[in-house]
Amino acid sequence: MDHTQRRMLGQPLAMPVSTTQPKKKRKSVMSFFSKVSWKLRFQKQEPLKNVFFILAEGARDPSANKRHMAMRGLGTMACETPDKVRKFKRIVLDLLVRGLYDPMSSEVVYESMKTLTIILGKIQGKGLGSFFIDITLQTRTLLDDENDGLRYSAFVLFGQLAAFAGRKWKKFFSSQVKQTQDSLLIHLQDRNPQVAKACKTTFRACSPYLRQRKEYSFQGEEDKRNPKLCRQLSHYHPELLQYFYANKIL
């Protein structure tokens, strides 16, 4: 994740939070989050495993609000105790991927993406295993979501995945980027300026995966280029087109 994305991640788009929740439910959620925060604050006296137990329990709770708070708690833990999170990396990733695929709550999905972005940065994408596929597939579907906050977070996370694909997942991620090309072009002109900016940064991060393979044929250089991509970029973002040409991506 480059400097621009780090700065942008620090100013995320807010998800709409319902203010019509029953008082009893709001009290229960705040009680849960307060308990997690307290344990994080006094972790020297309280074993960290107990905090994970509470968060894992909350991440699987039938209440979407508790699942949401559990994901937020994992994000707090990743920021405050990154070394400890590395120790429980597989458990944390499993919980966050579950949250990423949450079928009931967009707030859980949003919080999961934010926390995944933080954690992937802390572990530098190492040891993701098959989680890389799960995260990539779901994040790609959220690039076109109607919610601005989800789209923004999805672009930031997708750009980060581009940095961590490595040799192991290069072929897989290249195919995903090619399938995402239309979304990348569309959201360069997103109605939300922050989303458009995140998209542009991610486009650059994904650009190596758009590079054409060398083919020994009699085709000219112009014929090998992607005409649709060139036209779109030439009209709306000539600076990106020049960047691609300069780096022999197109």
SSE layout:
Elements: H1 3-9, H2 23-41, H3 48-59, H4 64-80, H5 82-87, H6 89-100, H7 106-123, H8 131-142, H9 148-164, H10 166-187, H11 193-206, H12 221-224, H13 227-236, H14 238-246
Helix pairs in contact: 2-3, 2-4, 3-4, 4-6, 4-7, 6-7, 6-8, 7-9, 8-9, 8-10, 9-11, 10-11, 13-14
Give the N-to-C terminal Cα separation: 23 Å
Largest sheet: none
Low-confidence stretches: 4-12, 16-21, 214-224
Number of helices: 14
Proportion in β-strands = under 5%
Q: So what's the overall shape?
A: globular
CA-atom Rg in angstroms: 20 Å
What's the helix-strand series? HHHHHHHHHHHHHH
Helix content: over 70%
Q: Determine the oligomeric state from the structure.
A: single chain
Query: What is the residue-mean pLDDT, rounded to a whole number?
Result: 76
**Can you count the beta strands?**
0
How would you classify the helix and strand content by structural class?
mainly alpha
Give an overview of the whole structure.
72% of the residues lie in helices and 0% in strands. It is mostly helical and 250 residues long. Helix 8 runs parallel beside helix 10 and helix 10 packs antiparallel against helix 11. About 10% of the residues have low confidence.
